[in-house]
Amino acid sequence: MNENPKVKIDQILAQGIDFKFGDYIGQGFSLLQKNLGGFIGFTLVFIILSAVISLIPIVGTIANSLFISPALTVGFYLVARKLDRNEGTEFGDFFKGFDFIGQFALTAVVTGLILLVSMIPFIISVWGTGLFDWYQEAMQNPAAASDPPSIPFWSIILLAPAIFLGLAYSWSYLFVAFHGMSFWDAMEASRRILMKIWPVYFAFTIVVGLIMAAGIILLCVGLLASLPAGYCMVYAAFADVTKLNVEPDPGDEIEQHLVE
Asked: Looking at the predicted structure, is the pLDDT value of residue 183 above 70?
């Protein structure tokens, strides 16, 4: 991409963002239909590979969180873009997210630390309730997990900063993959844009999440289609808001070089 992504983001913020909620839902389903078999096959690989790696004590969870899951998730977005541009796709395209694995890991670590700090008030408020002991036991043996302990109702409010920041940083991987940014620049780009549209994007993620969850009701076959559909919808929103596939105007490039 020839255009300076930071300059492009400044322009987007200056011009204002028209978030086309319903359009992105429809575009997501359209992209899914262009390669339904490929998306279903990759989703199956994604689920199996993540499950197998997570079985490895400690190391598996870390590897999945920092390396495997981010790279595989971005695979959905990379293929969605090729389909959006009417380009041919191969099954191997789903795995090209591993090309950015280093920046993804840094993004995951730094984002995780920021979210952990934002959750400190919540952690303090529920420390003596036994919630964390219950969570650890549930992770070790989900089938034998008991009902979670009760926690103060007001403590849920203390999760608001983590929810806000988690959503604000949720486009970081896409900025790394599509705009060639370093992890911190990608996180800042995501935060700056999504903070401008946070309420409507929060509503959008709820709808997308419900669509993904609907696949669980339809058992495995439904999940294999609803999961990639949700990722395609997120891609559609990102591509439109960031003008991902809009070629820069030659006059803008000349002006940019003069400024630099």
From this structure: yes
Q: How far is CA 77 from the centre of its chain?
A: 10
Please state, in angstroms and rounded to a whole number, the distance separating the CA atoms of residues 228 and 38: 10
Q: Which tokens is 161 given?
A: 């900063």
d(CA 243, CA 237): 10
**Whole-number Å distance between alpha carbons of 260 and 258:** 5
- Averaged confidence pLDDT in the chain: 88
Please state, in angstroms and rounded to a whole number, the distance separating the CA atoms of residues 17 and 196: 8
Predicted confidence (pLDDT) per residue in 64-79, tens digit: 999 999 999 999 999 9
Q: What is the pTM of this model?
A: 0.88
Q: Looking at per-residue confidence, does 80 or 143 come out higher?
A: 80
Of 237, 168, 250, which is closest to residue 26 (Cα–Cα)? 237
Pick from 32, 14, 30, 13: nearest CA to 22 = 30
Query: Domain spans of the chain?
Result: 5-259
pLDDT of 55 over the 90 cut: no
Q: What is the rounded CA–CA span in Å between residue 43 and residue 47? A: 6
Cβ density class 211-239: b for 16+ within 10 Å, e for less = bbeebeeeeeeebbbbbbbbbbbbbbbbb
